[in-house]
Amino acid sequence: MKDAAAIARAEQVAREDLVMFVNACFSCTGQREFYNDARGQAVSIEFLHEYILGNYRRLYTRTLAAGINHFNQALILLNLLATGRQTPPGDRREEGALIAAALRALPPQRAFRVLELLRSRRINNRRARAIAREYVAGRPDPDFDAVKYRSKLRSAVVHAHLKLEGERGPFLFHGWRKRVYTRPLLEKFRQAHYAQEALFELPFTIAEGLARKHGIPRSVFLARIEPRLTQAERLRLQGAAERADGVEISLELGRAPLTKLALYALSLAPQARQERRAELHAALEQAVARTLRRAPVALGRVAAVLDNSFSSSGSSEKRRRPLGVALAAHYLLSAAAREYRAFWTTPIEDPLLGVARGQTDLATRLLDALEWGAELVIVVSDGYDNGPPNALVELTRVFRTKLDPERRTSIIHANPVFDSELFAPRGLGAAVPTVGVRDAEDLPTVLGFARFAEGAAPLSELEDYLAARVRRMLEEEA
Amino acid sequence: MGRGSSVNKRIIPKGLRLAPSQVFGNFRLVPILRDTVRGDLRFTRRVYQDDLSIVSLGGGLMDSGLKYISYIPHGLVMSWGNQQAEAIPETKLFKSEGKAMQLGPVGLRVMHRMVRREERNRLRMLPLHLAMEGFLALHFNAPEIAWSEYSREALSSGLSPRMEQSVPGWASAAFSEALRMFELHEQQVGVLIFRAELLLSACILSHPEDYRAMHRALLEDFYGELLLQYGFLEEVAPLGSSMEPHRVASLADLRGEVERLRREWADFLQDAMVGGLLGTEVTAAPVYEAGEFQLERFVTRLVPSEENHLGELITREDGELEYLRTYRLSAAQTRRAYLLKQLAAAGWDLDSAAKNLRTSRDELIVRMKNAGFGYLLKEHVLDEAVNRQHRRR
Fold first, then answer.
1. Of A131, B122, B292, B325, which has the fewest Cβ atoms less than 10 A away?
2. Omega of the bond leading into B161 within 30 degrees of 0 (cis)
């Protein structure tokens, strides 16, 4: 009898630990937040990783498939590769496959960074070398990688004893000092060290440094490198182009990812936002349509309580991210729901023109949303409420126990901010499940995860959920 | 205290309302809201960049006379009028004020008075320094009867030089963080600053926009030493009451319960936490009359067992509180003021003061020495008393 209770308790602890970890992996990026500094965030998340890795290795590995953000995926990859000896023999196959698949799915700059970190953290074993070899061999355009990620690729090659074919070996280790290359991109890189013309054929990040070396004015450089820019660079350089006279970087707003687009819109001055309102609005709707095509969700009567208080201005490292996530969620939910209404903490007429300002009164807005008769209330907030102490916790508790014990209305709190002191995103009380979120695009995934955060589902269900996601990820890969 | 005759009164926060507090570590900041803003009294901050400022309290600027010396980072320019007064944004000293001097590496500025009228509807004042000066000048004059125990300097020039120490806001990094993270309300005109649940300071202005501009500048002002001392305490315990589920049958009830919590919290704040300042009896002295606004400075009763504040305030004719700045005295500062008050009450006669304090004359002398007033007494009087006390122990 006593054993059964002990086992149940152990299960509960395991479930809570995992939920905490996955939640942290949804939101934390080790960067500075409004309420916490970067150092605290890094210490906090690294501790969590080590703790989960040490205690629940298999589930730690499977978290790679849970839809967590890139920062934490990279951290998991590193930690797994560093401790390969501890993998039980039965799990080796799956772990290896997951690591390879997750590394391939990462954006190249992050994946190469993982390979580079393997060197600086002195992680060198047969599996790590094999993973690096496989990754480098599987890249579609090796010459481009050699130019754009030159130093990272070189670390990986040195560290994992890779053999590169053709001119890439000499290119990495002799660079522009070699006489001549036959591969066109490598040759352009060599030429660009001596001639200005050639650098406009190179990727932007590489050309930028060389342009400085040749003393090319910023406006000339931006205008001529424009065809080489990636979509993300185009979005990022809009402001720089505006400051440089007469340069315009064309941008198909509709192709940008939803949250990035929302952040871009919020970065504009109110005047510019007003003028380009129709364009931004259309682009956001397009981005939402694209997101929903990829991961369809159909919701009923949905109310969103969205935080646009001063703390949603984020930090110097994550400028306006909480507000951007709220804005993106607003667009996403309005498209995914049959009926939808937004309740901003400081009411605004046009969410696109919103600014992070004022205090947070979540309790009143939550009551408004409940009174409207929503089936699902999604709160997007950093979890800091300025009501009387305890009021929000009490409000949700009494609502759940007294007014709605059958759970006709579900309330879910999506928190874009990781609180390093709590090792979790800050919640709204035990009655409301809190899930971390980094991009509004992940909301469908995150909503799927919310039932575990609520604490109702047993550990086995969470394990099944992760296992299913792992299967899907590996199938997609194959 | 002060120039006019002082009166006993209570500070009533008329026209103001407290909002729920925001807690950062062991700082608790309580926003103060004003529902009807009339907009005929505005404040602007004027920044001084001198290392040291000398305020000439009487007579001409460079005449010899009473002086107040302190580091003064900024002053307040107050403008009022029948029509809507405008806050004048000042980016620099529009006209060099007073007299700036360079003394080696130290930049000095000599200024005219704590409060100075600059135009018909404009007044420059040095916030908190005004109140602090009033406090330093308490019982400042020399004993009227030349008791033999007092030194020659004390008999001729009184307490001069009288000094107190305070702590600038930026000495506490946590305070800076708390101000940064604080979320301003739209109608907010002021803030109460608590550290470890003790009221350190209150700041109330007339107009929300002025407060918004002043908010981060609170860091430049000076505070009692509790700002640092209580930084060593742990985080504050969460306060707050709970709802009663049996009273809730609908969402409207739930809203009512939230309202009840809000009200109860505001009452609690007002009664239990700010009770030592708002609503208690203070001794106030008028400093300036500007139209229908009256500028006064005040100090609480100076009883060592209570919390004690000094500050300045502006009230409208109808009693609405338009401006308030306060400074919490530390226990040592209170003791010093209390001792002076007792001595002055006894006509500076040590024997009768000791009797009033229910102590011996020697012990009183030792107390005076410990409080930093040893310089008022003759050397041999001091030594004898200290020696006698020492022997008795």
1. B292
2. yes
